[in-house]
Amino acid sequence: MATTAAPAGGSRNGAGPEWGGFEENIQGGGSAVIDMENMDDTSGSSFEDMGELHQRLREEEVDADAAAAEEEDGEFLGMKGFKGQLSRQVADQMWQAGKRQASRAFSLYANIDILRPYFDVEPAQVRSRLLESMIPIKMVNFPQKIAGELYGPLMLVFTLVAILLHGMKTSDTIIREGTLMGTAIGTCFGYWLGVSSFIYFLAYLCNAQITMLQMLALLGYGLFGHCIVLFITYNIHLHALFYLFWLLVGGLSTLRMVAVLVSRTVGPTQRLLLCGTLAALHMLFLLYLHFAYHKVVEGILDTLEGPNVPPMQRVPRDIPAMLPAARLPTTVLNTTAKAVAVALQSH
Amino acid sequence: MAEAAESPGDRGRASPRPLFAGLSDISISQDIPVEGEITIPMRSRIREFDSSTLNESVQNTIMRDLKAVGKKFMHVLYPRKSNTLLRDWDLWGPLILCVTLALMLQRGSADSEKDGGPQFAEVFVIVWFGAVTITLNSKLLGGNISFFQSLCVLGYCILPLTVAMLVCRLVLLAEPGPVNFMVRLFVVIVMFAWSIAASTAFLADSQPPNRKALAVYPVFLFYFVISWMILTFTPQ
Fold first, then answer.
1. Which stretches make up the Yip1 domain (chain B) (predicted)?
2. What is the chain A residue with the closest CA to B8?
């Protein structure tokens, strides 16, 4: 602040002594007041003031230059113009750099401060909200309360990422870990943010009373059921158990979200549209997470690359291999198959 | 007033001058003492000059830094209520630990395309990205700890897990079997608990007392993922 202020003040005083000096000559004793005023301006603490001051100084400088141009002494005039321009340029640069730095630092701190209220929770609150996310409340006449908080949802998404990684490992999925990690993070955050925005958009169309923050919190806590189901079924490989949990736990958390949305929407068509979309997306996502990373990828990898490939599936590839003339297409086909396998791995 | 006397014509010389023009009119009353202690800055500068590291040999410099890192390792292995890790933070220890862990988790397979193990870059990214996330979370929860202090503590507390990785690699040299796995599981669980305990001992004080659980949960998740990678590691 001090460094930016000093050249600005210097340029002002350096460029405009005609005016200042003239005024002071007339006013005499009043000069102290004027000087103090100047000092107050240049040591002002807000950048808006600085900007305004800077603008004003530039205007004054232009005036001063115009006045200086009328002087007779040509040689001295050139020197003076050069000095004025230099100091102005330096002041300009300093001011710009200072402003950029300050605004960057300010925006970083401001962002953290803006987010801080959403993380203002107690452990007991988080615990009760996690439990409540599994208990649907049948109250449709009055809008149900949604806590606008992001700590729980964010931690649940990270937990889901960890559980997905765990599941991929236990299922012995041979897959490149780098893409696997990226996929886990991308899937979870993509679902949370993407579906929240989509439902928010639908809610806007259906005239439901819900904000984006509430939607994020609602869907985030809805992922608690997913975490439980996936954590249990990745460790106990039983399809019947998974379907039971899928219907029971996943269904309960979905029902909770649906109940909240129903209470905040007016009109049967809108309710059906909004809640049907949300319920379908939420339940299918759980199904997808269980099977896509657990069974299907494994199956595809076995088919394409595994050592114990069933002979039935090799038939189309083996036929051209017997003909020497068709050697080249075979390799091409094999490469394509490999490419497909790689592409499937990464998804 | 000084400005008024000089201003007509002599502008080039006057330009730095009027900055202090206003000061010339401020009168200081006699009873306020203007002098102050000016020996203190001089003395501190001299001391700084004495302890300058420019003259010492490179070996001394490296040994001193290594000693500092080693001392912090000891603090992690035997967590006490001490602020050394927080006060003089550095990122050398975390870098060394992270690179060691990533190198040991790398598989020796030549064909990296079909390699199922974690890659060097991945471990590196997990450690740093995870630490940054935890730090931001603790900042958002209202913790009074600086960004790099938290990174330093989280990085140093990987040390038990790096030791666990070393033990696992040694155990894996032996014949694979259920006993082998049980040994590795035991080592990893113990070291995982150690990491959590050490990082909690350092970080918990910076949080508001009622929110310690919220700040510790992501730390738990972070070390859990790393332990999981260590436990499921196989050399082939």
1. 76-229
2. A18
CA distance to partner chain B, nearest, from residue A13 (Å) = 6
Total beta-carbon pairs less than 8 A apart between chain A and chain B: 125
Q: Are residues A158 and A290 in the same domain?
A: yes
| Residue B137 contacts A where some CB pair is shorter than 8 Å | yes
Taking the C-alpha atoms of residue B73 and residue B82, their distance in angstroms, rounded to an integer, is 13
Q: Do A245 and A148 share a structural domain?
A: yes
Contact A112, A82 (CB under 8 A): no
Question: Is residue A122 in a domain?
Answer: no
Of A211, A219, A196, the closest CA to residue A143 belongs to A211
Same domain, A55 and A141: no
User: Residue A123 domain-assigned?
Assistant: no
Q: What mean pLDDT do residues A151-156 have? A: 92
Count of domains forming chain A: 3
User: Residue B10: pLDDT above 80?
Assistant: no
Cα A271 to Cα A198, A204, A258, A261, B147: the distances in Å are 15, 12, 9, 8, 46
- Average of per-residue pLDDT across B127-148: 87
CA-to-CA distance for B207 and B218, rounded, in angstroms? Answer: 14
Residues A157, A188: contact at Cβ < 8 Å?
Answer: yes
Are A324 and A304 in the same domain? no
Check whether residue A107 and residue A160 sit in a common domain.
Answer: no
Residue type, A253: S
Final residue before a domain boundary, out of A87, A117, A147: A117
Residue A168 falls inside a structural domain: yes
Do A82 and A98 belong to one domain?
yes
Is B186 touching A (CB cutoff 8 A)?
A: no
Residues A295 and A327 in one domain: no
pLDDT at residue A80 in the model: 60
Of the residues B17, B23, B128, B140, the best mutation for testing chain A's interface (the one with the most A CB atoms within 10 Å of its CB) is B140
CA–CA distance, B186 with A18 (Å, rounded to integer): 85
- Structural domain including A346 reads 310-347
State yes or no: pLDDT of A297 exceeds 50. no
Are residues A160 and A302 located together in one domain of the fold?
A: yes
Q: Is residue A293 part of a domain?
A: yes
By the 10 Å C-beta count (0-12 exposed, 13-18 middle, 19+ buried), B134 is classed as buried
Q: Is A64 exposed, middle or buried (0-12, 13-18, 19+ CB in 10 A)?
A: buried
Least Cα distance to B220 among A153, A159, A189, A178 occurs for: A159
DSSP, collapsed to helix, strand or coil, labels residue B53 as coil
Alpha-carbon span B15 to A10, nearest angstrom: 6
Assign A324 a pLDDT band (cuts: 50, 70, 90): very low
Q: Regarding predicted confidence, which is higher, B74 or A71?
A: B74
